[in-house]
């Protein structure tokens, strides 16, 4: 159905909106086809249909067919496939918030605009909240493993750096400590879940904790195997710890709608303070016991 004529300014806004809607329709549709979970497929299909409905609504005013952004389709499809549906789609939603679509302005000539805006801001968020991904259930276990590894292993490496001043010895000690720590954290997480009656989650949560711990250990120990200077190794390990915290905190903030800056600063400050204290203790131990390696 052809709608009444609109001004050139509003028409440009609607064409831009059409491109956004048809692009997201293809993204949601493609992900719906690929997902194995029936409930997730149902949610994604529903959102895709809403996007197509909005596209057709705008098209009735612009009388124009608009092509999607194939780059955006590929980008968000692969982000969702690699990092998970929730992260990929919520990242896309955050991008939408920056989109220059002035629904209030459009509503002056297109009455349905405010209803569409409500769909975009409320309905889609509710639907995205229905998407279930197993790894997000164990995010607490992953955080536990990463946080403990960053604090304990970075502290150990910092202390050993000054005490031993030998990259190979520091790396060896870090690897041994890391493996022992991962096994300890995994078993503790398993027993903790069993004690709380979460028998169905005990094994998987312990595995996620252990894997997260080992990944952090690899990133922290690797610099001591690459660089000949033990102090450069420590600086790179510190940089690695900040990078891990940044990437993981960003992932959590997007996937779980949590504040990024506060969490990031907390983890960086904690691991850095422990590292500095351990570095100082290593110096004291070396001087007090007269250790020379």
UniProtKB/TrEMBL annotation:
Gene3D superfamilies: Immunoglobulin FC, subunit C
Subcellular location: Endomembrane system
One record GO biological process: intracellular manganese ion homeostasis
Main location group: membrane
Gene Ontology cellular component terms for the protein in this record: endomembrane system
Matching SUPFAM superfamilies: Ferritin-like
Membrane topology: Multi-pass membrane protein
Key words, A-Z: Membrane, Transmembrane, Transmembrane helix
Pfam families to which the protein is assigned, alphabetical: VIT1
Membrane-spanning segments: 169-186, 207-226, 232-252, 264-289
Entry GO MF terms: manganese ion transmembrane transporter activity
Record has Membrane as a keyword: yes
Name of the featured protein: Nodulin 21-related protein
């Amino acid at each position: 159905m052809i709608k009444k004529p609109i001004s050139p300014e509003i028409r440009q806004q609607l064409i831009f909106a059409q491109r956004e809607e048809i692009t997201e329709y293809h993204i949601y549709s493609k992900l719906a086809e690929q997902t194995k979970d029936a409930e997730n497929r149902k949610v994604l299909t529903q959102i895709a249909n809403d996007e197509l409905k909005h596209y057709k609504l705008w098209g009735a005013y612009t009388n124009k067919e608009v092509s999607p952004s194939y780059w955006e389709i590929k980008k968000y499809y692969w982000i969702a496939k690699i990092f998970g549906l929730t992260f990929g789609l919520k990242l896309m939603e955050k991008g939408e918030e920056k989109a220059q679509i002035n629904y209030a302005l459009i509503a002056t000539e297109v009455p349905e605009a405010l209803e569409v805006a409500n769909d975009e801001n409320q309905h889609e968020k509710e639907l995205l909240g229905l998407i279930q991904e197993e790894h997000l259930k164990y995010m607490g276990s992953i955080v536990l493993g990463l946080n403990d590894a960053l604090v304990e292993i970075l502290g150990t490496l910092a202390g050993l750096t000054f005490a031993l001043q030998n990259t190979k010895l520091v790396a060896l000690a870090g690897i041994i400590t890391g493996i022992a720590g991962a096994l300890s954290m995994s078993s503790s997480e398993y027993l903790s879940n069993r004690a709380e009656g979460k028998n169905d989650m005990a094994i998987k949560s312990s595995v996620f904790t252990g894997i997260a711990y080992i990944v952090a250990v690899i990133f922290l120990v690797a610099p001591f195997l690459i660089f000949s200077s033990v102090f450069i190794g420590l600086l790179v390990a510190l940089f690695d710890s900040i990078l891990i915290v940044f990437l993981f905190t960003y992932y959590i903030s997007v996937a779980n709608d949590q504040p990024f800056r506060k969490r990031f600063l907390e983890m960086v400050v904690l691991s850095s303070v422990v590292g500095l204290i351990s570095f100082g203790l290593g110096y004291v131990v070396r001087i007090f016991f007269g250790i020379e390696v």
